[in-house]
Design a protein that fits this description.
Helices cover 25% and strands 29% of the residues. With 164 residues, it is an alpha+beta fold. Strand 7 and strand 8 form a beta hairpin. The chain is globular and about 40 Å long.
Length: 164
């Protein structure tokens, strides 16, 4: 993979990747505002298997915002997320709080380059792939990188937090 920047100088996610010197590829597609699932739309538009495209979800675990990165084909197991970070209870975060804290809009939240770095858990299934796609910080823009680089750059924990 070559290092590429998004049009317009990039997003905070692509800027962070470039600064880190890791290999990544940016994939752009025409976002359909009526799409029910941003992640599944990305998988279809890019012709990538949904098990290699991961969505970024923000949850509240015991009062602390936490990022979960799970395959778009499945859903987040909130109990497993809480357990992965040593918490007791998890619930989906208020969308406005997620946007304010990460600096991204819903449907374009990236696990990379967030305004305030949140603790992050990447679903263990990511390690089965040479590369995965995650949001590059804007609807209609994905970044492809190795799961190892994603875990390293976000300080994430790998844990089984997704369910089919």
């Amino acid at each position: 993979m070559a290092k590429k920047k998004a049009a317009g100088g990039g997003t905070p996610a692509t800027v962070a990747l470039t600064a880190a010197g890791v290999a990544f590829t940016v994939h752009a597609y025409e976002h359909d505002p009526s799409s029910a699932s941003y992640g599944e739309e990305a998988a279809r538009a890019l012709g990538v298997s949904p098990d290699r495209v991961f969505k970024t979800l923000v949850a509240d675990v015991d009062g602390e915002l936490t990022v979960a990165v799970v395959p778009v084909a499945g859903s987040l197991d909130l109990k497993a997320l809480a357990a992965a970070v040593g918490g007791k209870r998890a619930a989906m975060a208020d969308p406005a709080a997620a946007e304010r804290t990460t600096g991204y809009v819903r449907g374009g939240i990236s696990p990379l380059g967030q305004r305030r770095r949140l603790r992050t858990v990447v679903d263990a299934s990511a390690s089965a792939h040479a590369t995965i796609c995650v949001s590059a910080g804007r609807r209609g823009l994905e970044v492809e990188l190795s799961p190892e680089d994603l875990v390293s750059l976000t300080g994430a924990v790998l844990a089984p937090v997704g369910r089919p």
